[in-house]
Amino acid sequence: MNVTPTSGVGTQSSTGTTTGTTGGADSLDYDSFLQLLIAQMKNQDPTNPTDPSQFVAQLASFSSVEQAIKTNNKLDTLNTSLALTQAEGLIGRTVASDDGSVTGTVAGVRVISGGAVAILDNGQELQLGAGVTVK
Predict the structure, then answer these.
(1) Assuming Cys at both sites, which of 55, 73, 108, 109 could form a disulfide with 87, CB separation 3.0 to 4.6 Å?
(2) 8-state DSSP, 49
(3) Residue range 108-125: average pLDDT?
(4) pTM greater than 0.70 (yes/no)
């Protein structure tokens, strides 16, 4: 029994959009890729081994997945650092949501995975992003 990854797996792996367990049902994370590769090696027919060029291509895909994960981790670190740098300039300034329903002076900033959330002096929170006015 040969286990062969579908072409969609290679596409997702090379783009680096699927890391960890945050991908959708059709994604393949790093650990799943390793399990798939090991299963293929264990279950191949010894009288009809995998074509060496296919094996090398799969190892290259494995390397791409590993590099994409490392790149994403570094980008996450850079994004957090950038958000903290920007947060320093917001404290003490007045912010307002796009529709004006949330407004106040920034007392603190909490960095989250999607950016930053301003903690206002009136206890409200406002996620910083498109449409937020800073005065």
Answers:
(1) 109
(2) P
(3) 85
(4) no
